[in-house]
Amino acid sequence: MSIAPRIKTAMAQGSWVRRMFEEGIALKQKYGAANVFDLSLGNPTMEPPAEFREELKRLANNPIPGMHRYMENAGYAETRAAVAKQLASETGLSFAADDIIMSNGAAGALNVVLKTVLNPGDEVIIFSPFFVEYVNYVDNQNGVNKIVPTGEGFLPSPALLESAITARTRAIIINSPHNPTGVVYSEQCLHSLGEVVRKKEAEFGTEIYLVSDEAYRKVIYDGLEFPQVLPHHPRTVVLTSHSKDLALPGERIGYIAVHPDMPGKREMVDGLIYCNRTLGFVNAPALMQHVMRRLQGVTVAIAEYQRKRDLLYGALTEMGYSMVKPQGAFYLFPKSPIDDEVAFVRELQELLVLAVPGRGFGLPGYFRVSYCVDDRTIEGSLDGFRKMAQKYGLS
Q1: Is the pTM higher than 0.70?
Q2: How many CB atoms lie within 10 A of CB 219?
Q3: Do 173 and 125 form a contact (C-beta atoms < 8 A)?
Q4: Sequence-distant (≥ 6) Cβ neighbours of residue 161 within 8 angstroms
Q5: SS3 53
Q6: Residue 189 and residue 193: Cα distance in Å, rounded?
Q7: What is the 3-state secondary structure (H, E, C) of 269-325?
Q8: Cβ(180)–Cβ(361) under 8 Å?
């Protein structure tokens, strides 16, 4: 035995997203990249905005003395102040630099938050469908995953949430705009969640944290204003990254923001800083912290993602596929025309179109496609989708 049995088991189950991505690499080697239409991974092909390149160039040509050294584990005070200023503008809350911890992307941030708040055996509620790595991150910190189905339109059901919360519930992970569905949680939805959480806290005499993964917060469409969760529960921790809004997934830069009015906030922030260090992240990448300082209000061309959404959503619905129209992020989550969506995805793969089975997100019977790809890939995939729609009698 060379590795832990639980890791062997986890590897065997694996991530369907990565599995399909890796199979796509093999198909491209066999058939040529131009002939394979990979919609499996949320890895933006859009380049970062010009402001990012300009700021990177400015720092390269005019380096700040010591800019690559360690800093305090929470991150540069100036960067945290810039984040706090932007958040205060967006939320109307009195964020300050001391409410922010810079992180190694949203994934690093979530691991830090869970490490800080969980005791072994504490329950974390996750709504299905969900970003698959959530269950691994909870397991990393010796928590217990409790999967709760969503209601109509993939929105969390207050009634289902209320019945799922127990005296062991410590945190609830929410994700809006949502991966894999593209759904944006409404103000009313968030208000209802907050009411349920406060009711159950009072009932059990516990503290329950809303942990809001907002990696796609700025990738939002149709003139919709992003509904903030922070006003609806004081024990809210927001985490995000610039992987999507600035097309920088490989740079691993993000942050954690603690509600300014959270009871016991100072202890929470100190705990997050400690766990950021002891989990081995130490601090967020120094160069990216310098760059991000001046880019808090900048995004990629969101209108381009909306155009791509409309292109793929329009084509698939015309073929007869059924799905919720995304309000944000860059995924579609159609219903599979057959019950076994893995079989359907395998048939698509034979047509050199790559999608991800819904069971990879905790919800069989659906499949996910990503449209953060070039138009050639989207348009090239349509023939395969059309053949499958005809085969299974969609109209």
Answers
A1: yes
A2: 24
A3: yes
A4: 125, 148, 172, 193, 196, 197
A5: helix
A6: 6
A7: HHHHHHHHHHCCCCCCCHHHHHHHCCCCCCCCCHHHHHHHHHHHHHHHHHHCCCCCC
A8: yes
Rounded to 5 degrees, what are φ and ψ at 195? -60, -45
List the chain pLDDT tens, one digit each, 395 residues.
Answer: 588 887 777 776 667 677 777 777 888 888 887 888 999 988 888 999 999 999 999 999 999 999 999 999 999 999 999 999 999 999 999 999 999 999 999 999 999 999 999 999 999 999 999 998 999 999 999 999 999 999 999 999 999 999 999 999 999 999 999 999 999 999 999 999 999 999 999 999 999 999 999 999 999 999 999 999 999 999 999 999 999 999 999 999 999 999 999 999 999 999 999 999 999 999 999 999 999 999 999 999 999 999 999 999 999 999 999 999 999 999 999 999 999 999 999 999 999 999 999 999 999 999 999 999 999 999 999 999 999 999 999 97
Q: Count CB atoms within 10 A of the CB of residue 343.
A: 12
Which residues neighbour 305 within 8 Å (Cβ) at sequence distance 6 or greater? Answer: 46, 219, 221, 330, 371, 372
